[in-house]
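Database export, one record per block. Field names are fixed; values are copied verbatim from the stored entry.
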Amino acid sequence: MPINLHTFAGNPLRSNSPNPSNPFPQTSLIETLKSRISDNTTNHSLSPNFKVLPLRNGKPLASSTMDGNSGLSWHLGWIGLGDLKGILVNCGGAQLRSEWFVYLGSSVVEDEVYWAIDVSVVNGLVPEFGSMKLCFVDLRTLMVATYWEDLKAMGNLAIAGYARALLEWHKKSRFCGHCGEKTVPKEAGRRKQCSSESCKQSIYPRLDPVVIMLVIDQENDRALLSRQLRFPRRMWSCLAGFIEPGESLEEAVRRETWEETGIEVGKVVYHSSQPWPVGPPSMPCQLMVGFVAYAKSLEINVDKEELEDAKWYSREDVRKALTFAEYKKAQTSSAKVEQMCKGVKKTHSSARNFNVKSGELAPMFVPGPYAIAHHLITSWAFPDKNINGVEYPSKQPCGFISNL
């Protein structure tokens, strides 16, 4: 995996600012969209080509195909605007409306413009798309099914995450928080504005920043890992928490660590960040801001309302956990996407694929490479793999080679 590319980052589409010199200015695009929606023809040769990604209850449309020797892989279910109009007619005559669309970006090279649309209120779409071998798949399943060294798949996942975040924000911002009047989309769905002439408050997509930190006991060469009740069995991860108003990122790291484990933290070093659009609909997109934090105290006092447990783990323990877990087994989730598109319901969490090797259960494992926690932990466990110039002093030789 490229060192600076986390899951849900690296969106290959480029959004255009409202600059008249752009080949696809937003003002022009939204007017063209309205014109094509009202046009009764289904001309596929129009330029630029409009492609639409439908989402239902936060789940993007997807399909699964066999790609030569690489096996099964998933793809986003892009639908032409004309085809989407026809599909809606088959589902009871639902009429498209331009305000349902949000602009995702454009590809000048391919002469294509990409949109997302929430079709949750349209009945009959599931069997209609099912006949086309397409289905609505939750973002977490697609996340786990994405091989992190496949840049095209990672780009598709970033697009899907962005689309979900924007559409969930639209559903949560239907009314102005200042005066209570309805809001209307602006800038092709990138902004909303209060419809009241006396207010006209501008509302922008919501972002919820979260600090996530690997706390280090540098003297004893250990890392602090924790468990929450909602975690799969034997999974341990980093501490994390939302940033409160009026505090810096570093202060949030120190406060959260103290509140949840009673550990006092001194030095805090930035590592990397990751968009995280797979949380609850009430938080359309979290931004995980990763840090390495150096402990000043060592005695753990777990807040049982926040955590199930927290423990210090040696570097060797963490290395064994990282090597023991066969993360690539999670790619069998591509088969789950295929089964879902055939009408077979998902039966269990894909995360369970991470802790089995030759039928033997691992004593512990950490989140897979789709999560920033994995990269925080790996960077400390294997200092030769550090990123962004962050150094992790080791008291042991680094002759242990990761199989990731």
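Remark 1: The first strand starts at residue 49 and ends at 56.
Remark 2: Residues 26-172 form a domain with the Nucleoside Triphosphate Pyrophosphohydrolase fold (CATH 3.90.79).
End of record.
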